[in-house]
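User: Predict the structure for this protein chain, please.
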Amino acid sequence: MNWDDLRVVATINRTGSFTRAAALLEVDETTISRRLARIEATLGITLFAASHGRREPTEDCRRILRHLAVMEQASEEIGAILTAPSAAQRRLRLSTIGAIAHFYLAPALPELLEAEGELALSIDISDHNIAMSRWEADFALRLGRPSRGDFTVRRIGMLQFALVRPSDPDVSPLLVAYPEVLMETPEMQALRSLLGDIRPRLETSDLGLTRRFLASGRGIGVVPDRLARTLAGNPALEIEPLEVTRDVWLLSQPHLRDDSLARSVSEWCTRQFASMPPQSKV
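Assistant: Here is the predicted structure, written as structure tokens:
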């Protein structure tokens, strides 16, 4: 089997589609289908099965993908060296939610990138869990521990939360909360226990928007304490720490376990959730 065949397998896995794989590899869909059939015949195994409109890797395929990810990474690094020998970089991909990216990672990103000159970090922000089994990311930071998966999982810290509300007792605050689908999260349950079943006037999972709304001094809501700290100097607000937390989990691809650059990224992520002094009431 040659590298071009392996690239076909990797691209089908990444895209979940013959059509999208063909577009990325700049061939037609028939060629992708024919090449995959030849690869499967050579190996004597089925690599992908159709499921809910996607091509999902079989267990046999997943065993191949573990090694293929290492080969793809090496190929990218060799390509970088050949195209720009004096500025070769390795690209690692991290997936997380907006709250973590903006309020926990972003302030310390220069520290990481200056310390690791060969690192090019790609951060994907999404409220939806990426598929680590499809190698869509090298790392992921999540607020829930996955029940299963072929990757390493480690608890690296927790998010604490605070209630932000107007300091003026004459203001009737407008409630901001997550959309209904996220109301079972611990922070929204804490908000409900404090305020009862008051209907939110603003529903959003975008904490950047929530921050601006609360900064007006007219809103009330629960946010991560790191976000609350950015509002602490606002005299129109009162900030009250809550006894509600969510664990932060770091997911890593298993082939990166002994990789020194990946270890640096992992340790950097962990430092961002080191214990901080409790938020005082403002």
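DSSP finds ten helices and ten strands in the chain.
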